[in-house]
């Protein structure tokens, strides 16, 4: 087999505000690879099928000197994210040709890894024969994020009220469905009529478009809220703090309103945590893996396979799209879980 | 006995910023009372000995239409706070002349109450024969605040580091001592050299004056911090968020930096709750009474009596001083637990 193109998406420049396609990241088509002959040195050759693009990636687009829980992308090197690949060749006992793997992969058509465990990759058995991209959304990091934190922090009780921001996204939409299964009243917000419609389909009792409806007014009418699932921070968090009930819980999953705005307004209503005896929990999904991972893998895939838990994807095609998708996710103009489809199985 | 003056401190006007003595509250000396003959209608006549002046009182000085966990003061009526009184006459089985009572009392020389329980008053047995004002500080609401929330939320482990703001106050100083008893490294901040000295005396490993030393620099050097006891909010909270360790706990007891400033800067560093998996707990002491009250009453009074737990008071004399003391406490210019001594026993 002749060499083929090994397209890559490189981190090019630290963005000040929103990441700019072609500037923050660039698509590079100059590299080639011969999948049949490329030396693996005892490793594994993986062909990329799909990538997940998630809000947290903005945090890696920073100066490498700024510490965080996740390392910064390196200028001139490929960006990376959760992805699905298929093993093409293997010189390592941890995987064999044909295995489908899930984990962090460089944004390139091909990845060579020493072995699965050092690369943090796992083989997907896909017992329910679901589309592979399902493992990037409801069965992947976003779904685990919802499930682990809901189990760990919500202390949900039947009859309580929860407010979920970005309720049509991969994280928020599973939170809505978990909350309904626990017997709660669910209020969901999102940024388009299509997303509002999806939130209603998955069971939200109240679903509204925060761009055309005042969050504060909805919460004043439909609250008080016992649980707030925060994906956005900023003014929405301030509105939620005002609408919280005594002994309420706030689960801080993300604060996208501040990711691209260094001059974001601070949170003004934090004093409500005192008067209302609130608890706020922030978390990072991987720290909850050991505690809730097994339950998730047992409970959620069958519900997804049977359709009892619904999910939705917005798929782009080709590595060339990555820069656009990263921006779309930061601006919330993706219609559902953002997936970049790179190659067919 | 001829009628005597029944001085009162009346709430006169809702303050915009800091409360102003003579404007926000006024001292009124026009009322008289004859303790021997005043009709009690089956109730209890109490002579005030001491009042506690605490930061939270600012929250009651608001427009009555603004809801909170504590009711607003009424314009033209006496302000009230925790106090100690002695029963002068009683027509009620719940108390007898000579009993010392603790609870919320109107700021007046004399209070008439229907009975103890409906007034939320309790009789102090004072088994250790401590000065009565002790029951307004380390053995009163401030001490309970420290103890209940430390037990409930700190999850303190030996060898951890805690940062306590307003560490020389009645709440902070007990937190420092509870933390040292639990084997933690303690960093305390306060606003004067005298207070810094007191924090050292009670065991703080690092004590600094936030007016002359940068909180951020101290925490960068002495942190990361596992627990932050927040009495102030604002910039100090932002500095703490930055210095928190992974899985850190923030106990929000008060936010005095915002009480008198409607245009306070918002909290900018809240995103750290995600990356560091932080927990923030706000609370109001009375909601923890049932769970920790009995332990407090068994454990703390003997330690205060033996001197193992230290405390300090700043005593003003006479009801006329109340307005000044309220302001001093909001500005932090009191030197220790603020007490107004009204009458001798």
Automatic annotation (TrEMBL), chains A, B:
Keyword Oxidoreductase part of the UniProt annotation: yes
Domain of life: Eukaryota
Keywords, comma-separated and alphabetical: Oxidoreductase
A GO MF term: oxidoreductase activity, acting on the CH-CH group of donors, NAD or NADP as acceptor
Cited InterPro entries: ADH-like_C, ADH_N_2, ER, GroES-like_sf, MDR_fam, NAD(P)-bd_dom_sf
Domain Enoyl reductase (ER), first and last residues per copy: 25-340
Signal peptide range in chain numbering: none
PANTHER family: PROSTAGLANDIN REDUCTASE, PROSTAGLANDIN REDUCTASE 1
Name of the molecule in the record: Enoyl reductase (ER) domain-containing protein
UniProt organism field: Agrocybe pediades
């Amino acid at each position: 087999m002749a060499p083929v193109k090994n397209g890559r998406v490189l981190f090019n420049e630290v963005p000040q505000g929103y990441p700019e396609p072609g500037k923050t990241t660039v698509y590079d088509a100059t590299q080639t690879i011969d999948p049949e002959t490329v030396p693996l040195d005892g490793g594994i050759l993986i062909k990329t099928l799909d990538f997940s693009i998630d809000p947290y990636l903005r945090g890696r687009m920073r100066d490498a000197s700024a510490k965080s829980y996740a390392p910064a992308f390196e200028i001139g090197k490929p960006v990376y994210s959760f992805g699905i690949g298929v093993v093409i060749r293997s010189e390592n006992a941890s995987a064999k040709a044909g295995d489908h793997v899930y984990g962090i992969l460089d944004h390139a058509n091909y990845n060579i890894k020493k072995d699965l465990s050092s690369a943090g990759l796992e083989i997907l058995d896909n017992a329910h024969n679901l589309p592979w991209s399902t493992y990037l959304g409801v069965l992947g990091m976003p779904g685990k994020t919802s499930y682990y934190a809901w189990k760990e922090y919500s202390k949900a009780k039947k009859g309580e009220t929860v407010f979920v921001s970005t309720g049509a996204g991969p994280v928020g939409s599973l939170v809505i469905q978990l909350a309904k299964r626990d017997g709660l009243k669910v209020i969901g917000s999102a940024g388009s009529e299509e997303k509002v419609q999806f939130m209603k389909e998955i069971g939200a009792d109240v679903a509204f478009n925060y761009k055309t409806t005042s969050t504060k007014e909805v919460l004043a009418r439909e609250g008080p809220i016992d649980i707030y699932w925060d994906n956005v921070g900023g003014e929405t968090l301030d509105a939620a703090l005002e609408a919280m009930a005594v002994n309420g819980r706030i689960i801080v999953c993300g604060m996208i309103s501040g990711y691209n705005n260094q001059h974001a307004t601070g949170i003004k209503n934090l004093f409500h945590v005192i008067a209302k005896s609130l608890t706020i929990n922030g978390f990072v999904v991987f720290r909850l893996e050991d505690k809730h991972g097994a339950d998730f893998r047992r409970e959620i895939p069958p519900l997804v396979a049977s359709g009892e838990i619904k999910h939705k994807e917005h798929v782009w095609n080709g590595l060339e799209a990555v820069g656009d998708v990263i921006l779309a996710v930061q601006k919330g103009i993706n219609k559902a879980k953002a997936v970049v489809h790179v190659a067919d199985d």
